[in-house]
Each structure stands twice: as structure tokens, then as C-alpha cells.
Fold each of these.
Amino acid sequence: MTTIATAAPTTKAPGAISLGRRRVSIELKQFFRDRQSAVFNFLLPVLLMVIFGSVFGSQQLKPTEITFAQYFVAGMIASGVLYTSFQNLAIAIPLERDDGTLKRIQGTPMPKLAYFVGKIGLVFVAYVAQVTLLIIVGKLFYKLVLPSGAQWFTFLWASVLGLIACTLAGIAFSVVPKNGKGAPAIVSPIVLVLQFTSGVFFQYNQLPQWMQQFSALFPLKWLTQAMRSVFLPPEAAVFEVTGSFELGKCAAVLFAWAVGALILSLVFFRWNKRGQD
Amino acid sequence: MSTETTNPLVVPAPAGADLAVHVRGLHRFYGETRAVDGVDLDVVRGEVLALLGPNGAGKTTTTEILEGYRHRDSGDVSVLGHDPANATGAWRSRIGIVLQSAGDLGDLTVQESVAHFAGYYPSPRDVGEVIEAVGLAEKRTTRGSDLSGGQRRRLDVALGIVGRPELLFLDEPTTGFDPEARREFWDLIRMLQGEGTTIMLTTHYLEEAEVLADRVAVIARGRVIACDVPSRLGGRDESLATVVWREGDVEHRTQTHEPTREVTALAARLGGEIPGLAIHRPSLEDIYISLIGDDSEDAS
């Protein structure tokens, strides 16, 4: 019988930062190897963009030269934030609570924060990869104009703030589905409805007023608006309800969502299945 | 608080023994259900303690309180000198946990999973040697979802021991193992014990408890109803022996405290060789079944 030697003995416990980095890499491996998560959270927006873009893309938003494809691409990039963060985590975390992932890591000395660092890292990498793909497809087929100057700055803060808000919302929402199996049936309709009502699939200023008011309560409407200011020329502001992209308000709403979702996560997040603590 | 002196079947750990686990008066209620109803339990450092009991008797709840997963309603609990209700990273790095069936890690290879978890510990074992020790060397590059049930259990065991724990919790570790794999696993447990690891083993296999355990504790109705070395559990060593033999076509059996005298008398009466002679002592399983009585049909 062999004995098991100890690898180079270190007396210091691994730090939260190095463990966070390890979590990011393991999360990425699992995300892209899992066909369901890769298709559902990562490729779906690209597919939707190709389909919608091909059907309605050439219609022009009179009196400007802007095509619906350009309007739509901005909305899909905003949706990409929601897919890679909120939808991804609100489905993956209940699944991990069910399949024993959370229980297993909870039984190790890994600091719990490292788990969330891993999730946040996953979300950011997945978003950057997805948005790159969306921009390339948009540029090649739908005359997407790349942002310039201050638009890049808006793109950056809107992406980061949107990712933070929707990541925290996804973590908070992960306590809602009763189990992992049922999570997609609860989470994806929410994402889909928000896309319809927030100006992704349809032009926002043509929606019924009650629908506009409903979607203004959620981050996607504001994120979509900010992304339109990034990917559409300034004259596109005429298609906004107020005639302006209202960037300050966009930032404020996203920030409020981030704070609210952080509080909800801190209060309600659970590691164990119901009745097992 | 302590009830151990009132039950002669619960033999306490040797006085002054160095204890890895010390539990007195543990209670946990779920609504009206008294899942754990006064458990007293000691695990001596370096020993293998097998925890037996029907489903629903409180084994899992008790173990998960010791592992720091569940909270308790009352009772004193010390695991490696710490209260698991206030688990710290330093404490966690000294214990290893092999939970019942899990379905995670399906997208990672054996090597990736073991290497990843090794990274959580201050002084992990060598990843390759752990994989070798649990018998997964040939499955190193296989993803979790492509492992058989028994191989998955081996991976669970690998992740439980990679941190070089002082105390290892094993919850039904050999479920799904074929007999050969089970024997290899027993060798692994003996090796870990040889290195000084304290092991708390929950199992449904009485044979496994008999082979591996220094002491056995039986839980039923939320409390420990018997605890002793396997050969003496429940008065096993003092219980009646059954002598079986044949006269003509008729099989005879008698129960006696003095099987030797019985057999000598038989030999004299039957004149030499006794046809079909066998002497049975109750197996650990017989003792266990008689101990848990009606609880054996409890659902989990």
C-alpha cells in the first residue's frame, strides 16, 4: 500500500484573492463546457440578433437613416448584460444548491466571498466575449456604427454598472426558485418579458404607456437606453420618450438597483436547500 | 443532561481519552419532529467510529451539525476543540467531509476537480497520489459526468481527503461500489487511520462497520441507543450461541451459554462425529436488528 505524501508543505492558508482567481477559472471552464449554459446564456442573444436583424433589420426609423437593426443591436447588447449576469446566476445558483456544489465548497476552508468573486469574474468574462461577438456580427451584417469618444465612456460605465446591478439581482433572485430544475421556467420568462417591454424587440416610444411605466421600474429599460446613446447617432434621441437619452437617470436607476440587490442578497442569500440548515 | 450512565448498552469512551468529537445532550427539532433527541457521543482521536441507524433516526442531522452545516437547538458540541456552529476556515481545513450523493463537478475532469479543491487547503496532499489512492488513476482526464456511480464516490472521497484532514466524516462512502472496490476502499481507510486520521463513518453495510470500526454507535429515535466495540455491541459476546446438528433427517437446534459443554455431550451421545454441526453467534447485523427493533422500517 502506498502512503500519500504531502505536497510542498505550506503553513499559510491560501488567500481570498488567489482563491477568487481559482474560482473564476473553474467557473469559466464549467460555464463554457456546459452546453446548456453556453447556448442559453451566451449564444442565444447572438442568434436572436441574427434572426430579428434579418427579418426587420432594413426597416428605417423615419425621419432618420437609422435602421431598426441598429436600434435592435443596441438593445441586444443591453440584453447581453441581463443574460450573462441575471439569467445566468439566477438559474445556475439554484442548480448548484441542488446538485451539492454549494454544500461541498461550504465544507472546505474556502472563504465564502471567493465563490462570489468567481461568479462575478465569470459574468464579466462572459459578457466581454458576448458583446465582442455581438459587435462583430452587428458590424458585419447590420451596419452597426462603433462608438466614438465619449460614447466609449458611456459604454464602459453602463456595462459595468449594469453588470453589477444585474449580477447582484441574480444572486438575490437565486433564492426564489424552489429548486434548480424549475429555475429556468421562472427566470427566462422574466428576461423575455423585460426584453419585449424595455425597447429591445420593439421600439420603446411606440409601446403603450402602461408598458413603458412598468418597464421603467427595471434596469433593462435604462440599460437599453444608455446603449442606444452609445451605438446610435445623436439624432436618435428623437425616438426617446423625453427626446433625450437621460444618461444621468440611467446611471441613478442602475445604481439604485445595485444597492437594493446587494441588500437583498446579504439578507436572503442561502447556501443550504430549504429545511437543511 | 447526560444520559449515558442510564443505558448499559452505551459504553463510554475510555476515561481521559483524547477526544476528537464530544457531544452531550444534542437536540434538534423540526417543528414537532424530534430529529435529534438527546445524542451523547464521543469519538476518540485516531479511531474509526461507525455510526449506524435506520433512515430517519437522526444520523444525518447529527453528522451535519458536527460538520457545521446545520444548527442545533440545544446541547454541547465540540469538534477538534471548536464549536462547529462557529466554523472558521482554519477549523475547516482540519476536517474532511464526504457527503452523500452529489451531482456536481460533471463538467470538470477528475484531475481538475482534485487539483482545484487541493488549492483550498494550507497543506494539501499530492494531487496525483490522492487520485491514485482512490483508484482513479486511469480516469484522471475523464469528466465527472462520464464516471460511473462508484467512480463518482471515489472522487468524493478524493476531495474529502485531499486537504489532509485530522478528522474525516464519511457518509455512506461505499454506496455503489462493487465488492472489489469496497475492499480497496477499506485498505484506503486503514491507511488513513494508520496516518492518525480520526474517522467518523456512517454506513448501511454492517460488514463494513465490523471490518473498519474500532467502535460502533447505533442511533435510533434521535438518540444513541448502543455504543461499544463491534464484538461486544449490545451484549453480543455474552449472548446465546446456537448449536445446530442433524439426527437422521431431522435438524435440531438449541440455544446455550455453554456451547462447548453442549457439543461435548452431543459427541458422547452420538458417538463421535456430529452430523451437520454448526455453532452460530449472533452477527453484528443480528444484534443491530434486535437493537433498532421496530425502527428498521422507518422511512427517511
Amino acid sequence: MTALPAPLEAFLTEVGRFFVMLARTLAWTPRRPWDARELVRQMVRVGVDSLPVVLLTALFTGMVFALQTFSTLRRFGAEGFVGSLVALSMVRELSPVISSLLIAGRCGSAMGAEIGTMRVTEQIDALEALATDPVHFLVVPRVWATVLTLPLLIVVGDVIGIAGGYLISVVYFGANPVTYVENTFRYMDLDDLTSGLIKAAVFGLIVAVVGCQKGYHTRGGAEGVGRATTRAVVLASIAILIADFFLTKILF
Amino acid sequence: MPAASEPPVKIRLREVTKGFAGRIVLDGLDFEVREGESVVVLGGSGTGKSVLLKHMIGLLRPDGGTVEVDGRDLATLAGPELTAFRRRFGMAFQEGALFDSMSVWDNVAFPLLRAGWPKAKRAERVAECLEMVHLEGAGRKMPAELSGGMRRRVGFARAIALEPRILLFDEPNTGLDPVIKAVIDELILELQDKLQSTAVTITHDLTSAFRIADRIALLFRGRIVAYAPPEEFRALPDARVQQFIRGLASGPLTE
């Protein structure tokens, strides 16, 4: 067998570990005991605690997007489309991707650090020695909490982003509020919303599985934990952007 | 002694090899622990004693050779089966390995909770275990607030909470004061007495080794080089054993 080039081998290792962790998570999910309290605790951490950041980001994304498109479309006399453009872009693309990237930085990193610390201080070994599978106990609630919570966050982000667009178009550029709102919903159907939510759920899966996987395979003390944390964010972010391309291709 | 009178083998390692990044730690190691016996493994720092212990519970997998517990080859177990198999073990880790997101109380209660004990029974048992290691008042403390020795005692309490049949102790009394050390030794003996548990203890401490062991083993260069009951062990002519017992700086162990 010829050796693979080191970067390729590293890449394939990551991909392999991702799917192994995903498979183990799915295999352990139906097994008892179910820890509803831990699931809720993790949902609060991903959802409630991230809400302010997501709201702020969505608001400004909507505002900037309206600012850009309004001044551009006005040159063609097409400013009537700003409402549709902002709404569709937010719901289908901007809100899921930007919020997921934020959650990767906020929660994926925390999962990597937490589980990584447990690994280097033998707490993962202790869990196993106490007849508790670490994937069952640590990874399953984190993954499902993120998968369930991220779409909810994104709905809120959608609303706030659209409101931000309204604010700029109507208050700042003086567009007609009635036609603006009308245009916002004219070209949007349910598929646009659900495709955004599907994206969000997949991104949530990526963030949590990558974060937990990096933590689980941590080596080398405090330095290793730092490395795992950084890698969790970088890898999840890249994976989100790549997955976004393919999901967009499939869903539309 | 005729073989028939000996208790059955509980843990058996055959030709176990294990290396990390090219460095060989266990080198064709053979080892047997008989049911109900208390075995102490001696050996210098970094000779792979913890690695040996982790093989017994399947936390590490051998590169070569087999590990059998109760006649089951651990290599044949994985996933939920392995997890369930581990209920028969209790293990205390070197630095305690307490769950730092949980209080001392919750740490000790953890195995009971996982085993599905009702709340009242759990509380009673946790109180009992903490009392055994002389930490009655520390239940509400978080692991970060404890000294190293206290953490080790909580780890010990957590390991014995379910009264497992196989006890693995990784340096349970290192860094403890002599009184608490004696308490831990007493507890190991008592558990054995009460439950006929099998215990494997790693220690540097010769006093406690001779106090708790039915047999003492010396690990050197990845193999068990001596294995005998305490009095026989003390009298072994093996130069490595004598160097360890007398604590000499020069000899075959340090060559």
C-alpha cells in the first residue's frame, strides 16, 4: 500500500471520524436511559443563550442587504423588488448560513473544549469505566439539541432580518410601507422557508458532530484542548459552506 | 499446591503487547488474577502500570495478545455490550477523574443513578460512601475546590459505590497522609472480605502493598518479572525485586 500525502490523509481521517461519530450517535439515540433534562439543558445553551447574538446579526444582515440592494436596484428603477429580494435571501440563504457560522463559533467550540477537557483529564475514561458510553451520555444530547434548536433560531433570525430590511427601505429610503410588505411576501412560498429550516438542521448536525468529535479525539493536555477547539470551529465553518452549496443545489 | 484448590482465574492477559507512537510499553505480558484475590502491581514510574490496568477494563486495546475477564475475550465486546460488561468493574483513577461539572455528591451518585437506583436508596448509599472515605461534609463541594488527595478519595468512593466484583485502583493512596492511607487500605480489604471482590491495585507504597496484597507483582520492561504472595515476594532472590523493595538507586531496574 502506498502512503497517501499527509494533507490528504488528514482530510480523510477527519471525514471518516465525522461519519463514525455520526453513526455512533444515531446508534445510541434510541437507547435508554434517555436524559431529557440534559437535552433541555443543551437546548437552552444553544438556543436561549445564543439568541442575542443571532438577533443582532440577523438585524444587521437584513439592514445591510437592503442598503446595498436598494441603492443598486434604484439605478434600474427596480427598487420595488427590494422587499422580495431581502426576504428570499434571508430565508433561503443568509439567515441559515450566518447564524450557523455563529453557532459554530459559540457552541461548536464550547463542545470541543468541554469534551476535550474531559478527555485529557480521564473523565471520558471514567465514564466508560462507570458503564456509561461517552457518546450516549455526552454527544447524543448535544447533537439533538443543536439539530432541534438551530431551525428555531433561524426562524427568529428570518423575521428580524426581514424587519431590518423593512426598516432601511421604508424609514431610511422612504419606500411605500404597504407595497414593501406586499412585495416581501409576494414571491415567497412555504418551500423557501422549509428549505432554510432543512439547511439549518443539517448545519446544526455538522456543528455538533464536528465539535464533539474534535473534543473526543483530543490529545496532549491543555494545548491539545486549545487545538481541538480551534479546529472544531474552522472545520465546522468550512463544512457548513460546502454543505450549503450542495443543499442549495438539491433543494431548489 | 494442587491446582484444584485455587480459585478460578478472573482476569487473564496473554502475550499482551502495546505501544504508543513507536514506544513499546507492554511487551508480550502474561498475567493472571484469581477470583477474590487482592493483587498489587509494583513498578517504577512510567513502566506502564496504568496502561496495564486500562487493558483489564478495555479502555485500551492491545496491539497483540488477548485480555480475558470472566472467560470473555474483551476483543469480542464492543458498543453497548462492552458498556454493559463494565458494570462488573469499579475503577479509581490516578487523579480522581471526577466529573468537574458535578458536585462531589453527584459524582458518587452517578453510577447509582445510571444503574437506576431510586432516590432515597441512592442518597443513603452516597452518604455511606462519603463517610467511608472520611468526606462526610464535602458533598456539596465541586471537584475544583478539592485538594488532590480529596479528589482521589471521592474517585475511590465513586468506584466502590455499586460494590463491583472487580476493583481496579490506580494509585489510590499516593499523596495521602498515613492515616487516610490506612483507611483506604482497610476499605480495600473490607470490600474484598465482604464481597469476595477481586482487586488490582497499583501503588508505589510498599507498606500498603504488603498490607493489602494476597499477591504482589513487579512490572519491568513491559512484562511481569515477579509474582508471588507478600512473604515469598519479599524473599525473592531476584535482583530487580530486591532493588525495588530496598529502594536502591542503582541496580538492574535503573540500568
Amino acid sequence: MAENTVARRAQSDPPLVKAALILAAVAIMGFFVIVPLVNVFAQAFASGPRVYWQNLFGDADTLHSIKLTLMVAPVAVVLNLVFGIAAAWAIARFRFPGRAFLTAMIDLPFSVSPVVVGLFLVLLFGLQGYFGPWLRAHDVKIIFAYPGLVIATAFVTFPVVARELTPLMEAIGADEEVAAVSLGARGWQVFRLITLPNIKWGLLYGVILCNARAMGEFGAVAVVSGHIAGKTDTMPLRVEKLFQEYNMPGAFAVASVLAMLALVTLAVKTALEWKTRRDLAEAEQLQTEGVEA
Amino acid sequence: MSISVKRVTKSFGTFVALNDVSLEVPPGDLLALLGPSGSGKTTLLRIIAGLETADSGSVFYSDEDVTGAAARDRNVGFVFQHYALFRHLSVFENVAFGLRVRRHSRADVNRRVRELLRLVQLEGLEQANPSQLSGGQRQRVALARALAAEPKVLLLDEPFGALDAKVRQELRQWLRRLHDELHVTSVFVTHDHEEAFEVADRVVIMNAGRIEQAGTPEEIFERPANPFVIDFLGNVNVFHGHVQNGHARLGNLEVDYPDYPHEESRAATAFVRSHELEIVRTKNGRPSLEAKVMHINPARPVVKVRVYSEAFGVVLTVDVSWERYGELRLQVGDTVWLSPKQIRVFIQDHAI
């Protein structure tokens, strides 16, 4: 008994330290996350739901920014879905020269400031950029237009899906895919019937996360958009513009929509994390249990 | 459908997995590829299946050269070491997979899957998930899945490796009966010689990317081709000595060795299996050596006696029948005489 207590004391910190640490964490979370979040909604609804509604859907420019975001984000997500699966497949299934380099490059958009990405795109596609004269000659507008927004958003959210899928596919392994091939399945059949069902929760998780980041993207989009109200303003840009115009209820109304998106993302993400973990545990169990049984 | 492997070589980087290997599997045979890990047996199996490509050499099914054919076009049934069952599919769908991707009709799939599940004795588990099955059941699902599309060739990679001893024993006999029923040309990989000898018609022993010996279990057991084979089969005592003038001299033990009539003395290794050593209480005139009893293990069909020979400085294992054990009344510490009933001598140059 006595030994047991001693052992327990040696392994755990004094209750006072424990309480202090927990309190500190909760306080920081509350001060920096919960209070501002509640405040966004409080400010947005300060003048009642009618005004809130009016702020969101009564203003043509705000309404356009919501529509534009809903047009930009899904396209960027689809682009990254395709890229993410291709990259994860290549890294998890093949050994090739430059594999480590590719893995590092995928993370680049996360480590570089989005503003730099925006400037880089201007340098490429702007009027004075490398492709500028050619684009103008062919009457293609990228910078200060919809394609620029999509490219900037897609670039910044590039790593999300690939980073989610690569470790998952590595953990699941290629055994089932090889088995499917030996049973006569073609490449596409292997992907559709075996790979996709195995990674579907991880994939959905990546898509949700990617979508959240795409809708909230500010820095890179701010540079390439040109801030043309009713034309190239996305929701985050609209929030900033309303804020600059001292239209606080309007700014907070749009911000509350983005905050809601964040909350939904968080909920779905938590549920999917749980499912992905279960998939991984099952994969591990199937691989090792036979040996022990 | 026979399988011929002709002069296949395969390297992974600097590691030579297969070095100029040729192999014939007659139609309807059940053949075991036996060897230690790293001997190339699994690589050879995967090359036969088309899951791996050879650097050089060719693979034939009957007269058809399939060297360049993709695995999916070879119509082989492959049972993976850890089964690789599709974990998101039911037992039924796992078995049906090979038929569905080949676009068999629904009725055909239903009929064939039920037939196979009956064959592997898994009726009633159609809707179960792989995670709900025991190791032995998973193994049988893997086998049914491999057999579904009526493959020309059945290949099994360590089919019993992941099972416990008792289930393994049952499945071995069951696999043999299944093969006798289906007569599909089969090759399986194993590192367990008892398993290979019990199940297979023919055994191929591999080591370091080469075939050491091929033959029936009896041929291999009775006439091991070289020191590696006899050593790998186990239960054997090793002596070092010399050959000269038609005799082999192993310490103070001398036996006839007419294969080497030359005058020049050559180093040689001799092997005596534990059941080929006889224990006697007193020297009986035949070539024999003195030893001291160290340990007795009577928990076997034969009594395993470990003795120490001072002349050779080695511990030897001797199998003694229960009858003989009763007569000898052996005790630990007793001094006894060992006389070999059979000695296999290999001149060292031939050794690996």
C-alpha cells in the first residue's frame, strides 16, 4: 500500500502544480479564443437579427463576396484533392529519386508567408510579369480576376490534403492493393474499390480542413484581388473593407459567418479524426493480430 | 498447367535475391520452396506471380511465356503472408472480388462464392468482417478469394506463418486434402521443413538466392546434396576432420569413405543425425566415441539425450527410443559410448 502511494507520488506532479497548469491553459484559451469568438457573434447581433440579416444579404457587395468565396473555395479544394491524392500516392507507394525533396516541397506553401505567394503570382501573371504580355495579347486576365483568386487560394492550401493522406496511406500499406491486382483488378478499379474506401475518412478530413483554409484565406488573395468591390472581394477581404469603413455591424456579420464555418469545421474534424483513428487501429489489428493469435 | 522458371536473376540494389535460378513445377503438383529468410524464396514466388519482375530470365506457364505479362493478366491465385484481406468488405465480397472485377454475372458470382465458402468451411460467415474472424478463418477466406476465379496456378506465401502451432497443424492437412481435390498446380513458401515435407509433393531448398536441392521429401531427407541442406533440416550433429585414402578420420573415429581414394589429405565435415547415433554402455568394437550424459529430455516421442564429447569438445544430441532408454537406465553424469549407424561426409571445398 505504502509503496504504491510513493510510486504514484513519484510519477505525478503535486496537485497544486496540476491545478495551476490547467487553470493557466483554460484562462489563455478563454481570453484568446472563447471571448473573441463570443464577441464576434455579440457584435454581429448587437442591433438584432433583422439588422444582421440586412447586413449580410441586403448589401450587394457583401452578398457578392459571399458568392465569390463559394465559387473560389470549392474549385481550389477540388484542385488540391486531385493533387493531394496524386502526391500522397507517389510518396507513400513509390521509392524514387527526389522523393524526400518532393515531401519537403509540399510543405513550402505552409512555411512561406501568403503575401509572398501573392506577390509571386503578380510577378508571374501581372501586366509587368513574365507571362503578362502574352496573357494580355490573348486577352486572359488572371491578376485582379477570378482565376488569380483560385490560383492563390489553391497554392496556399496546397499541402492540406497531401499531408493528411500520406501518413494514412503509409500506415495502411500497399498489401490490399497488391492483392487486388493479383485478383485481376485494373489500376482504376484498385483505386475505386480498395484505396478510396480505405482512405475515405482521412480524405474527407483533408477536404474539410482545406475548405476552411480556402474560405478564410486573406494574405495571398489580398495581393492578387485588387479589392474591387462587387468583383474580386472575397469574404475575408470584405470583412476588412467594412471594418476600414467603420461599418462594425457589417464587418462582424460577415465575420460571424466565417466563425460559424470554423465551428462546423471543428465539429466535423473531431468526428472524422475519431473515425480515421479507428480505421488505423483496425488496419494495425489486421496486420498484427494474426501473428499473436 | 506446369510452371517453368528459366535462369531468373533478381537484385535489389546490391543484394542479389535470386542468382540464375531455374525451376520446373509439373502440372497438378504441390511444391514447397523451403529456405531461411533472405534465401530468395518469396522473391521467386512473387516473380512467378508477376508481382515482381525479374532482371533477367523468363517464366513460362505450360508453353506460354508470361515473363512480360502483368500479374492481373496471369490468372494466378495468390495467398499473402498476412492475408491482405479487404478490411472494408465482408467475407462474401472479399471472395467475390476477383469475379466482380472480371465482370462475371451476378448469379455466377453468387453461385461460385457459396461453393467456395462451403469448400473452406466458412458457410454462415458471409456477412462477417475480416476483423471479426480468427487467424485460421482469415487464412481460409484468403484461400477462397485466391481460388474464386479458377486460377491456373495457386501461390501461397508462408501460408501458415502467422498461425499458432495447433491451427497450423490442422490447416496443413486441410490444404493437402484441398489440393488433392482441386489438383491446381501450387507453390508455397515456407521456412519450416516439417511443414514442407508434410504438405508438398516436391520440395525445393533455397539458400542465398540459389537452389541447393530439389526433389521429393524422401530424396532430400535420405540424400541431402550438401552440408547446407543437411544442416538446414536440423537434428544433426557436426564433426570436423579429414579424408584420405578412402577413409574419413574424425578425431579418434575412423570410417570408410570410398568416394575419396586420393592420397592428399583434405578437410571434411561429417554429419550424423541424432537418430543415427547409438548409445551403448560398453565399447562394442565398432567405431565409437566416448561421451558424458549432460541432460535428458523424456518429454518427446523419443528421448532426447544431450551428451558431451571431450575428444571433439562438442555437445551432441542423440535420439533414444523409449524401449532402449528403459534398457540403458541412463543417468546424468554417466559415461557412455556412441557409435554412428550412418555418417554423411562432405569434403570442405563443396561446403558453402
